[in-house]
Design brief:
The protein has 182 residues and is α/β, with parallel strands linked by helices. It has a single domain, classed as RbsD-like domain (RbsD-like fold), CATH 3.40.1650.10. The protein is built from six helices and six strands, in the order ααββαβαβαββα. Strands 2-5-1-6-3-4 form a six-stranded mixed β-sheet, with helices on both faces. Helix 2 packs parallel to helix 3. The chain is globular.
């Protein structure tokens, strides 16, 4: 292939690689593929629209173009169906205190989110503490951020993945048994 033709092919390939995900590679497809790869200590973040792009190479951000609660539901369902992991939900403790006057719609969001999370193991911590945990984990483990259209403060939902077939009680029993043997 002549040099101008090769340069044209390389240019076209480069442009294709920088294009947004195609319809068959939607955020749902990415989520389903990633959940298969992820394990305990990985995170999935369903972020509001102002969530910053992070530079750590272990963090993958996907702009969903979807509504927050739709993505939260889809992420929880993908984790549930996977079976090898389970989600420990982390919410910003600030969310409970955001006033309707400063963020119209936040009350309805809280109520709807509570319904979606019913029965889920949920921890509420100050936003900066959750971000600190996420940043620390991202040094060694992958993080998937699904950025949504949400425009209310403190609404990001953080899913810390844990082992789906070996729980904390089983781990404690194992460690106790090991200590007794020593």
């Amino acid at each position: 292939m002549s040099t101008p033709k090769r340069q044209s092919v390389l240019l076209i390939l480069g442009l294709l690689m920088t294009m947004p995900l195609l319809a068959d590679d939607s955020w749902r497809t990415v989520l389903d593929q990633e959940v298969k790869l992820l394990g305990h200590r990985n995170w999935i973040v369903i972020a509001d629209s102002a969530y910053p792009a992070q530079s750590n190479p272990g963090i993958r951000t996907v702009v969903t173009g979807a509504q927050q609660l739709e993505v939260v539901s889809a992420a929880l369902e993908a984790v549930r169906k996977a079976g090898h992991v389970r989600a420990v939900v982390h919410l910003d403790s600030e969310l409970a205190h955001v006033p309707e006057t400063g963020a119209p719609g936040v009350g309805a969001y809280r109520k709807d989110l509570e319904g979606i999370l019913k029965g889920a193991e949920t921890t509420r911590l100050p936003h900066e503490q959750i971000i600190g945990k996420l940043d620390e984990s991202a040094k060694l483990f992958r993080v998937l951020i699904l950025k949504t259209e949400m425009k209310l403060p403190y609404t990001s939902v953080f899913l810390l993945l844990d082992c789906g077939y070996w729980g904390p009680d089983a781990e404690k029993a194992l460690r106790d048994s090991m200590r007794r043997e020593n």
